[in-house]
Amino acid sequence: MSDTPSISPVPVLAKNEWLKQRDPTLAGDIAATLADPEALRFSDDDEQFIKFHGFYQQDDRDKRKTGKEYIFMIRNRLPGGIVTPEQYLVFDDLAARYGNNTLRITSRQAFQWHGVVKRGLGPLLKAINDALSTTLAACGDVARNVMAPSTPSTSPLVDEVLADSELVSRELLPRATSYHQMWVDGNELNLGRQAPAEDPLYGRTYLPRKFKTAFAIPPLNDVDVFTNCLGFVALADPANPGRVLGYNLLAGGGLGMSHGNKATFPRVADVLGYFPRAHLVDVAKAVLAAYRDHGDRTNRKHARLKYVLAEKGAAWFRAEVEARAGFKLGEPRPMRFTKQGDLFGWHRQSDGRWFLGLYVEAGRVQDTPARQLKTALRRIVEKHRVEVRLTPSQNLLLAHIPEAARADIGALLAEHGVAVENQAAAVRRASMACPSLPTCGLGLAESERALPGILDDFERELAALGLAGEEIIVRMTGCPNGCARPYMAEIGFVGRAPNKYNVYVGGDEASLSLNHEFRASVKREDLMKELAPLLRRWRDERLPGERFGRFAQRAILPGLSAANS
Ligand code: SRM
Ligand code: SF4
Questions:
Q1: Does 398 share its domain with 517?
Q2: Does residue 102 belong to any structural domain of this protein?
Q3: 265-269: long-range contacts (C-beta < 8 A, 24 or more apart)?
Q4: Nearest to residue 518, comparing CAs of 529, 481, 509?
Q5: pLDDT at residue 142 greater than cutoff 80
Q6: Domain interval for residue 392
Q7: Which of 22, 112, 163, 504 could be bridged to 515 by S-S, CB 3.0 to 4.6 A?
Q8: Helices 85-98/373-384 angle, 10° precision
């Protein structure tokens, strides 16, 4: 036997961990770069810090041949997607003044401003804060924007759940003072040199990675609650169905993966247990802290909470949460989700007023020659002061509209080419696409710019098969990170390389289960050739009322696994 002591490898922390440890104020040299008119970009280290402040350094990839032109994407936090009329008018104006004159509704109910140049950052972030919104922790290794059902009156619980989502969002915000000093107070000191602060919840190094939270109210799963790190499913009080009695706690969902790396995978959350509403904040903080302490800080591709649940198990994690929260979770209460998606057109609220659901292609609020949605919304909000609500499927609702305003709002929309009835085919209304090119640095293939044409193909094919008007949930992303949640769709397209996509089928109408890869590396122009035979089989072989996703699970995927085994 050798006398040499065995050496166990010391895990090496990921670079981001060293950065956070070095500067827990999250200030880096951001202020100095901002103040220097010669500096075109933030340093590589600061590129990590600026995310915590809610923005990304990007470049217009369409223009790369002539050199990199640095632009910025800014994202805010809007718990439950609620936007007051005053905020909406500010946000709209900021897009025109500092961005590319579009407002991008994200798949997590927030807004993004694209194409902002460096000198626009200060005024834009200040104006967002002055409008009582924030970009703090919209990105970075922290708890992100909290999702919640924004549709008024689909359940009497909506208002209480929206209030709870706002509360959790606020309680999970980091306290980093550099944000307010830099963007709100306009203090240009190099804050990185000040004494490091330790966040009471996040400690010195924040979380191993991003952390996502959503609230859902059965039977509607519009937030895709099972794809979140932390999920709260609201349960009504049987004695008082308008009140939330408590929540079922879900943990460990997440979608990002990398092509060719089997250690990365999408995962649906586990249901851990039930707790009464009064414990909400304690439970949220307990889950966050358990992740903070047990997430992998050595490998960012393995750092999400879903890998902790996948490896240590739901029972272990439940005990960890209970120990931190200081009480035992009850057994999960029955819950049943039957659908996802948004309501379009006019609907009456329980208080007698109305809301109007509007389809927004890939979430991009903009003016095009055929449809001036951005101008129409601005005019409506200016005149009628209606609340705007962003949905998790990148659409929007105008809420709390009195009967007397309906005709005028309809007329304003029509004047700008925006239909209220028959806004788009069902397959289009149920679709989502991530931005990908030209702004996203990670995009491998087109997404937002490709999906409208692909949906044209779907509409044509469905009509030819006599299936016009059928809804299929189609989602597309430019890479496997999964920003438009393609792995939950009935048909998902995931960018593999320029002009090539992996095709996924399965998924279901309530977003409960993952879909599966059907074909890899299919050229854009061949997508419909691959799918048309499946659509035809669906028409001919489906059970009464069977949706495409369920049909694929029953009749297509088993054949594939048999062929592969
Ligand atoms: Fe995302 C990174 C856009 C929702 C998983 N996401 C990015 C970046 C910031 C690219 C980057 O890091 O340089 C994209 C900016 C593109 C651009 O030009 O705007 C980007 N993600 C988006 C948005 C805007 C897509 C959209 O179509 O709306 C969504 C913003 C939501 C928000 O308001 O916060 C968005 N991203 C998602 C979702 C869906 C969700 O959360 O419901 C996911 C999958 C769920 C999940 O997190 O597991 C998602 N985004 C990712 C990942 C993969 C993370 C992972 O675990 O591996 C990345 C890459 C990363 O973080 O390194 C990423
Ligand atoms: Fe970018 Fe990929 Fe997210 Fe699309 S899915 S926005 S390409 S990171």
A1: no
A2: yes
A3: 266/227, 266/482, 266/487, 266/514, 267/306, 267/309, 267/310, 267/514, 268/226, 268/227, 268/512, 268/513, 268/514, 269/225, 269/226, 269/227, 269/228, 269/229, 269/231, 269/306, 269/309
A4: 529
A5: yes
A6: 345-423
A7: 504
A8: 140
Q: Can you give the pLDDT at residue 448?
A: 98
pTM for the model: 0.96
Record the tokens describing residue 247, joined without a space.
């929540």
Query: Which residue lies with its CA nearest to atom 62 of ligand 1?
Result: 481
Q: Which atom of ligand 2 is nearest to the CA of 447?
A: 4
- 483 CA from centroid of ligand 1 (Å): 4
CATH code of the domain covering residue 120? 3.90.480.20
440-453 tens-digit pLDDT: 999 999 999 999 99
Question: Which atom of ligand 1 is the closest one to the Cα of 448?
Answer: 27
pLDDT of 176: 78
Query: Do 434 and 416 fall within a single domain?
Result: no
User: Is residue 438 very low, low, confident or very high in pLDDT (cuts 50, 70, 90)?
Assistant: very high
170 — pLDDT class (breaks 50, 70, 90): very high
Residues 404 and 496 in one domain: no
Residue given tokens 């399965």 in the structure block: 506
Q: Is the CB of 478 under 6 A from ligand 2?
A: yes
Considering its fold, how many domains does the chain have in total? 3
> Looking at the CA of 432, which ligand is closest?
1
pLDDT at position 560 over 90: no
**Catalytic residue set:** 75, 144, 210, 212, 434, 440, 479, 483
What is the model's pLDDT at position 190? 43
How confident is the model over 310-326, as pLDDT tens digits? 999 999 999 999 999 99
Q: Quote the ligand 2 centre to 109 CA distance (angstroms).
A: 16
Position 8 scores a pLDDT of 66
